[in-house]
Structure formats: structure tokens, C-alpha cells
């Protein structure tokens, strides 16, 4: 077990290249199950969620190679092996195995998903969609059993705009007989990315990226080659870092349109941002003003950037309010930021941040992935040394974090935990 050591208070400068999108990769990899021959995806990030999904595809008989960001999956000898326990519980996105296996094999047994603890993460809309397509769905001892004699296209209205449900229903519907219409669909870029892969495999999908998606089912899907989109959340994390402690940061391999809500907020704070085609430059910010943000479905401000953005707001002049309408309990990073001298209080779904605090290095714990990113940013802003534990969360979503930050001039390294520290974590 390791911790991150950060010597804060020094400016960062230079270019950082963004990896492929975690939240696409975790859906694209299960989607390969639907093909009858080899699928290659370029630009897959080397993160633990990806390694776990690779293992799960192998468990069901797939042959998977993952080297230099290219993942090649031969799904031809896969079988519908039940996956009620083990690795599936380690990540949220294992729920995409439900849609993909149901689409290909018309049956699946998948344990209820894990992932970051952000409060309740229901999957009722996924299940409603599978049932509408003709599947019988039961929950038996913590695993979801799905069976269908055949899948038939249906009109499905999502009661809640959900990225997960939109993608999962799409995965099953591409192999249903006839037309499926998903109404009130989510519009996130990752949905378009998954639809592009499926289309490359021979699926017929129209409207991905809008709130009505039409899918005409096909009998067979074939292998193909696909390049993943850049990770807008990783890119946003570095943009926030650039505004906090940057003296000129160039973020490379980014789609600026995917981050309009963040860029608008950073500009409103007074940050200097220049957006190009696939690069964004963040200049040194002398003074920053407080702003309010509210997380919303895309193209609103992403919930996944709310926590890193909170760290930045601690140095803004004035009082800011952060409201998370997607995951109202996504505030576990706040206690840790307080340990670092931040002046923040939580009221219901909102955090109220009184700036300008000079953060101080401290021993803190990442409770989830983006809380980890928030603490790394805070550590780089703080005076003195910050020690961050809970790296297993950060490793789920940030490829080569230490190397990328070192490349920008940060003093950051990983260190083995002492026996006493391991004991303390076990007893906590
Ligand atoms: C809308 C949104 O910002 N979604 C983010 C959320 O997706 P994630 O897939 O976790 O969440 P969804 O988009 O599916 O859910 C959005 C909201 O709908 C609710 N819900 C969802 C499914 C369901 O069956 N029933 C239900 O009530 C959720 O509790 C949540 O409040 O986290 C992902 C990883 O952090 C991000 O990539 C997504 O961009
Ligand atoms: C919460 C996240 O991941 P997951 O939904 O996979 O837990 C995230 O990407 O911010």
C-alpha cells in the first residue's frame, strides 16, 4: 500500500497530454462483447477500472491484449458465464456487462456494481429499459439475473436522465428485433463515443448526443477499430490545476467543447484561458473571484469536476457555493480540505466556501476518485507537505498522475505506507 507525498506551494508549468476517457473506456470495453470478431480500441487509459474489466472479459472466455494504450479484444469464444461476485463489485461500470451480455447471449448474471460511494447509485432505469426490451430481471442475493427468449425493440422513456441507463439500454437494444427509441436520454460525449463504436461494429443508431436515440436492431455485429475520445474530466482536473497553481499550462489532446461549462466558470473567476482546436492554455491567475456552481446533466457543469473545483475555490476572493444536484452527498472531500485550513461548510446538497484560505499541508485521505483529485490539487496549492492515502481510488481514474505532474514541475512522489499506517487504516 502506498501514499502520495506532495510538496506544495510551487508553480507548475509546461504541457500535459490527456489520456483516453475513463467513463468511455469502461463502457467501450464491455461493448466489445457484442461483436463476433476482433475489436481494437486505441487510446485506452491504463487505470485500474480498465484492468479489472480486462480481467472480467477474460473470465467470460475473451482473449484480450492491452499494450501501449491499444486494447484488442477477440470476443468470439466468450460465453455467458455468471459474474455474481468478485471483480464486478469493485467498479460501478461493471453494470455495462448486463446490457452487453443480454444483447449478445440473451442472458446474464451480474453482481450489483460498486464504484465510488457518492450516496445511493440506483439502477432502476437500467432495469426498466431491459424489461421493456423483453427481459425478465430479478435480484437474487445481490446479483441481477437477466433472461430473455428474444429482445424486442421498445419505446423507453427514462424517468431520470442517466448516462449509465442510456448506454446500458443502447448496448442491449442494438441486438433487439426492431426499433428502440430512448426518450429523455442523457447527452454526454461518452454516449456518442459508445454509439460510434457500436456503429463501427455495424449497429444502426441515430440521435446519440440528443435526448432521443433511435436504434434499429441488427442480427450480427462485427469487429472494427475505434479511437476513444479524450478524458474531459482528466482534462478539466488539469485546467483547474492550471488556474490554481499554474504559471502557463498547456493541456493537449482535449475537446474544448466538452468542457464549455468549466471553461466559462474559470473565465468568470478571472482565469486566463485560450482554447484551440485540441489544446487549451491556462495562464497564471493573479487573483480569482468567488463563483457559484451547480452540477447538472451534460452540457451543465459535471458532477465529476465539482470536488476538484472546490479546492480551487478556497483561493478565490469572496464566498462561493457549490451545489451538486446529481450526487447530493458528494462532499466527503470537505472534511479533508478543512484539515488543510479550508473554510467550508456543508448545508444539504451545497458546500459554502469562504475564500481566500492559505491551505496548509496535512495528512488526508481520498474517500473516492474525484475527492482524491481535489486533495492532490489542494496539496499542490498548500504550504508544506501533504500526504494523501486512499490511492486505490485515484488509480481508478487518473493514468500516470505522478509522472504527468512531475513533468509539469511538481514535487510529488509515491511512498510505501509504514506498518503503523496500514494498521491505522485497517482500524479506521
Ligand atoms: C448525469 C451525470 O452527471 N452523470 C455522471 C454520473 O453518471 P452515473 O452513470 O453514475 O449516473 P447517471 O448519469 O446514471 O445518474 C444520474 C442520476 O440519476 C440517478 N439514477 C441513475 C440511474 C438509475 O437507474 N436511476 C437513477 O435514479 C442517479 O442516482 C443520479 O442522481 O457519474 C459518472 C461517473 O462519475 C459520469 O461519467 C456521468 O457524467
Ligand atoms: C465517480 C466516478 O466514477 P464511478 O462512477 O466509476 O465510480 C467518476 O468517474 O468520477
TrEMBL record:
CDD domains registered for this protein in UniProt: UdpNAET (cd01555)
Keywords: Cell cycle, Cell division, Cell shape, Cell wall biogenesis/degradation, Cytoplasm, Peptidoglycan synthesis, Pyruvate, Transferase
Organism field: Robertmurraya mangrovi
Enzyme Commission code(s) on record: 2.5.1.7
Modified residues (2-(S-cysteinyl)pyruvic acid O-phosphothioketal): 116
Function: Cell wall formation. Adds enolpyruvyl to UDP-N-acetylglucosamine.
Gene3D superfamilies: Enolpyruvate transferase domain (3.65.10.10)
Functional pathway: Cell wall biogenesis; peptidoglycan biosynthesis
Xref: Pfam families: EPSP_synthase
The protein's name in its UniProt record: UDP-N-acetylglucosamine 1-carboxyvinyltransferase
Catalysed reactions, semicolon-separated: phosphoenolpyruvate + UDP-N-acetyl-alpha-D-glucosamine = UDP-N-acetyl-3-O-(1-carboxyvinyl)-alpha-D-glucosamine + phosphate
Annotated localization: Cytoplasm
Binding-site residues, UDP-N-acetyl-alpha-D-glucosamine: 92, 121-125, 304, 326
Binding residues for phosphoenolpyruvate: 22-23
PANTHER family to which the protein is assigned, alphabetical: UDP-N-ACETYLGLUCOSAMINE 1-CARBOXYVINYLTRANSFERASE, UDP-N-ACETYLGLUCOSAMINE 1-CARBOXYVINYLTRANSFERASE 2
GO molecular function term, any single one: UDP-N-acetylglucosamine 1-carboxyvinyltransferase activity
Primary localization: cytoplasm
Name of the gene this protein is made from: murA
Amino acid at each position: 500500500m502506498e501514499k502520495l507525498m506532495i510538496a506544495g506551494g510551487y508553480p507548475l508549468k509546461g504541457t500535459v497530454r490527456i489520456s483516453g476517457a475513463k467513463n468511455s473506456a469502461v463502457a467501450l470495453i464491455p461493448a466489445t462483447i457484442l461483436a463476433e470478431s476482433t475489436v481494437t480500441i486505441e487510446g485506452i487509459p491504463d487505470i485500474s477500472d480498465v484492468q479489472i474489466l480486462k480481467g472480467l472479459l477474460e473470465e467470460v472466455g475473451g482473449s484480450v491484449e492491452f499494450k501501449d494504450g491499444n486494447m484488442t479484444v477477440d470476443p468470439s469464444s466468450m460465453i455467458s458465464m455468471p459474474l455474481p461476485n468478485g471483480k464486478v463489485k469493485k467498479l460501478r461500470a461493471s453494470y455495462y456487462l448486463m446490457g452487453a451480455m443480454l444483447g449478445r447471449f440473451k442472458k446474464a448474471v451480474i453482481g450489483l456494481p460498486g464504484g465510488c460511494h457518492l450516496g445511493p447509485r440506483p439502477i432502476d432505469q437500467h432495469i426498466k429499459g431491459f424489461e421493456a426490451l423483453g427481459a425478465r430481471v430479478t435480484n437474487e442475493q445481490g446479483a441481477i439475473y437477466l433472461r430473455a427468449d428474444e429482445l424486442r425493440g421498445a419505446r423507453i422513456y427514462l424517468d431520470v436522465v442517466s448516462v449509465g441507463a442510456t448506454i446500458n439500454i443502447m448496448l442491449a437494444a442494438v441486438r433487439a428485433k426492431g426499433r428502440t427509441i430512448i426518450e429523455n436520454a442523457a447527452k454526454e460525449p461518452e454516449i456518442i463515443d459508445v454509439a460510434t463504436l457500436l456503429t463501427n461494429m455495424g449497429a444502426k443508431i441515430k440521435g446519440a448526443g440528443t435526448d432521443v436515440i433511435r436504434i434499429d436492431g441488427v442480427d450480427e455485429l462485427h469487429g472494427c477499430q475505434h479511437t476513444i475520445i479524450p478524458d474531459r474530466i482528466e482534462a478539466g482536473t488539469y485546467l483547474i490545476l492550471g488556474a490554481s497553481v499554474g504559471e502557463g499550462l498547456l493541456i493537449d489532446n482535449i475537446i474544448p467543447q466538452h468542457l464549455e461549462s468549466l471553461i466559462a466558470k474559470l473565465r468568470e473567476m478571472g482565469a486566463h484561458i485560450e482554447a484551440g482546436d485540441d489544446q487549451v492554455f491556462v495562464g497564471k491567475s493573479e487573483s480569482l473571484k468567488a463563483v457559484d456552481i451547480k452540477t447538472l446533466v451534460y452540457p451543465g457543469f459535471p458532477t465529476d469536476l465539482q470536488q476538484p473545483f472546490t479546492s480551487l475555490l478556497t483561493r478565490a476572493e469572496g464566498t462561493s457555493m457549490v451545489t451538486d444536484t446529481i450526487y447530493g452527498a458528494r462532499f466527503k472531500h470537505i472534511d479533508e480540505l478543512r484539515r488543510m485550513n479550508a473554510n467550508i461548510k456543508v448545508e444539504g446538497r451545497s458546500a459554502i466556501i469562504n475564500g481566500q484560505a492559505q491551505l496548509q499541508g496535512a495528512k488526508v485521505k481520498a474517500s473516492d476518485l474525484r475527492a482524491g483529485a481535489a486533495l492532490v490539487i489542494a496539496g499542490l496549492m498548500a504550504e508544506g507537505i501533504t500526504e494523501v492515502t486512499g490511492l486505490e481510488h485515484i488509480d481508478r481514474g487518473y493514468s500516470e498522475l505522478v509522472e504527468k505532474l512531475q513533468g509539469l514541475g511538481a514535487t510529488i512522489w509515491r511512498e510505501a505506507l509504514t506498518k503503523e499506517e496500514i494498521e491505522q487504516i485497517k482500524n479506521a
